[in-house]
Structure formats: structure tokens, C-alpha cells
């Protein structure tokens, strides 16, 4: 296994959502069994989810822990997942959709990482949260370097009807605020998605769309667009299938022959959407 893959696996097993280092890096995802849920005869509506990390969407390479899972109902209330299972290769859970409308399932994580030299001059590395940072770094530490990584992994489902209530931005981190409901997607349609960084338009932001089934297709098939000054992009949807929307901020500048220079704050966003036939 390469050093890159080992480091990615270590992060995943620690329960962190992973930043896409390049188009073919391992990616975390939450995949719904369907994004449009038809109620049963008794009125109940259930959907099940897989959570995993994969290089070739949507195969399974290793599990994605569900720490930081937030499920928002159409009325803004928070729901708890049911029948949660953290397996060796994937995590799974069920959700009971008790009200008509659109639901958002989000896995949100923030980590603080860095290094310092202790009073003997030894280099030490640490991983913390904002709350535990002071405990991790001694007061007499020198050459302190700190980076912050914030990730958001989402998917969306609707039952009975669709609405836009769950897409109100939080104003924190990198978010997608769709103008077009992401559970109403059909091949050939034009859709508009807006991206925000800390509540402000993410202008000139590169956004990728990847279709699942890379293992069987043999090509990545990435669709790449850049947002305008309003943080928006409009695209014509490709063929039906399950897709991932992925973006990160800021763009990492690369110099040939050198490792990428990571900024002090790194944000990433991804969401799984389902495109239905025309």
C-alpha cells in the first residue's frame, strides 16, 4: 500500500472526513438507497444509507465513522438515525421520514492539526479540537504550526413533496445552497447550485461532478466547472445515475516535484445526488 493510501486510511479510521487531494483520491460519501421515497400503505417512509470511503465511487474501500452526523427534517428539527451499524468496511443507518418534504443528512467534522518543538527541541505532532488545543500544545512550545481542516459530507432525500427549508446556510465553512432542489434532478435538465464560504459567495470556486461506477466504466468522467462572482454555477445534467458533487477551498497550488503546500485552513464539501432519466 502506498504512503498516500496509508495516510488516507489512518484519517478515515480516525473518523475524519477526507479532503480530496486530487481527482482520484479516496472520497468519503453517504449514499441513500433512494432520494425520492414513496410512503408505504401505512403512511410510513423509510430510507437506508451507506457511509464509506472509496477511490472508485461508489465501491467500498473502508468504513466512514458517523461521529458528527446531523439529520435535518423539513421543519428544521433534528432527527436521530436508527439501526446504526459501524461495520469493518462501511457504516449503515436507517431514517424514518415522518413528515413530507426534503431532508438533509450531513456529516460535519472539524480538526486541528499541527506540530511544535518541546523545550528539548524535539518535534511533536498533534491532532486536537478547538476546545482541546491548549491542552495539546504546552505553553513553552516553540515553532508552533497549526492547520485547521473542516469537512462537510451530505446527501438529501424527499418524501411526499419537495421544499427548500433545509438549505438555509449555517454561515460556517464550505456549503452548497442549491437553487434547484437536489432531489428533483433529471438527465438533460439545467440546474443551478450556489456555494458559500462562511456565508459569503465562493467566487471562482472549482467544482467537480463524478459519476459512480468508475470500476466498471474504466474512466473517471469528471465534469469540472467554476463558479461565478455570486458563487453559482449552472450546468446541464448528464446521463442518469448516482453522482458526487465535490469541491475544496482554497485551491492548493502545486509545484512540480514538491509536495502540496497546505494552507492554515482547509475546507471541503461533497454531496451525493441522484440523477433520474429524462
UniProtKB/TrEMBL annotation:
Keywords: Signal. This is DUF4198 domain-containing protein. It comes from Duganella aquatilis. Residues 1-25 form the signal peptide. It holds the Pfam family DUF4198. The keyword Signal applies. It comes from the Bacteria.
Amino acid at each position: 500500500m502506498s504512503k498516500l493510501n496509508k495516510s488516507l486510511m489512518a484519517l478515515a479510521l480516525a473518523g475524519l472526513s477526507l479532503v480530496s487531494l486530487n481527482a482520484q483520491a479516496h472520497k468519503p460519501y453517504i449514499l441513500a438507497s433512494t432520494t425520492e421515497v414513496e410512503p408505504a400503505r401505512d403512511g410510513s417512509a423509510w430510507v437506508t444509507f451507506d457511509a464509506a470511503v472509496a477511490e472508485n465511487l461508489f465501491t467500498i474501500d473502508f468504513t466512514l465513522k458517523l461521529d458528527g452526523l446531523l439529520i435535518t427534517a423539513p421543519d428544521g428539527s433534528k432527527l436521530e438515525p436508527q439501526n446504526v451499524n459501524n461495520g469493518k468496511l462501511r457504516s449503515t443507518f436507517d431514517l424514518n421520514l415522518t413528515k413530507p418534504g426534503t431532508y438533509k443528512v450531513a456529516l460535519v467534522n472539524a480538526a486541528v492539526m499541527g506540530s511544535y518543538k518541546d523545550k528539548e527541541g524535539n518535534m511533536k505532532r498533534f491532532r486536537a479540537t478547538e476546545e482541546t488545543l491548549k491542552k495539546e500544545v504546552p505553553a513553552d512550545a516553540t515553532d508552533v504550526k497549526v492547520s485547521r481542516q473542516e469537512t462537510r459530507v451530505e446527501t438529501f432525500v424527499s418524501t411526499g413533496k419537495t421544499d427548500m427549508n433545509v438549505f438555509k446556510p449555517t454561515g460556517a465553512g464550505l456549503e452548497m445552497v442549491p437553487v434547484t432542489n437536489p432531489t428533483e434532478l433529471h438527465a438533460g435538465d439545467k440546474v443551478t447550485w450556489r456555494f458559500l464560504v462562511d456565508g459569503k459567495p465562493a467566487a471562482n470556486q472549482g467544482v467537480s461532478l463524478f459519476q459512480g461506477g468508475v470500476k466498471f466504466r474504466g474512466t473517471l468522467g469528471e465534469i469540472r466547472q467554476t463558479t461565478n462572482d455570486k458563487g453559482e454555477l449552472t450546468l446541464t445534467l448528464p446521463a442518469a445515475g448516482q453522482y458526487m458533487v465535490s469541491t475544496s477551498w482554497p485551491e492548493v497550488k502545486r509545484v512540480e516535484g514538491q509536495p502540496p503546500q497546505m494552507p492554515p485552513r482547509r475546507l471541503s464539501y461533497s454531496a451525493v445526488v441522484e440523477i433520474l432519466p429524462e
